[in-house]
């Protein structure tokens, strides 16, 4: 049997006011990570909510750099 049956792969776009749990009982909002244009970040094994019942996952954050004088409003 292939082990892919036990895993679920998905991608979510999170707003910057979403909470993540980076360690046991330590929750921070994504905006507290202080990303700036041109910066990317990868976090492993974090929960994406304060609610119980969710297991850890990985988060990739990226804020496109300024291009031709234009930059996105958020990461």
List keywords for this structure.
two-stranded antiparallel sheet, two-stranded antiparallel ribbon, elongated, mainly beta
Q: Topology of this protein?
A:
Blueprint (H helix, E strand, L loop, with lengths): L18 E5 L2 E4 L10 E7 L10 E6 L13
Antiparallel strand pairs: 1-2, 3-4
Word description of this protein:
The chain is mostly beta strands. The protein has a domain at 19-65. The chain is 0% helix and 29% strand. The protein has strands at 19-23, 26-29, 40-46, 57-62. The strands form two sheets. It has a two-stranded antiparallel sheet. The radius of gyration is 15 Å and the shape is elongated. The N and C termini lie far apart (39 Å). The mean pLDDT is 76.
Distance N terminus to C terminus?
39 Å
Which structural category fits the helices and strands?
A: mainly beta
Low-confidence stretches: none
* Topology, number of strands: 4
Order of helices and strands: EEEE
Q: What's the total helix number?
A: 0
Summed over residues and divided by their number, the pLDDT gives a mean of 76
Percent of residues in helices: under 10%
Major sheet size, sense and barrel closure: 2 strands, antiparallel
Q: What general outline do the C-alpha atoms trace?
A: elongated
Oligomer: single chain
Rg, Cα atoms, Å: 15 Å
Major sheet strand order: 1-2
Strand content: 25-35%
């Amino acid at each position: 049997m292939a082990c892919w049956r036990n895993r679920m792969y998905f991608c979510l776009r999170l707003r910057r006011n979403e909470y993540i749990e980076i360690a046991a009982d330590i929750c921070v909002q994504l905006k507290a990570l202080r990303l700036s244009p041109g910066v990317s970040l990868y976090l492993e094994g974090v929960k994406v909510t304060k609610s119980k019942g969710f297991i850890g996952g990985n988060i990739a954050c990226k804020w496109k750099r300024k291009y031709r004088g234009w930059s996105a409003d958020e990461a």
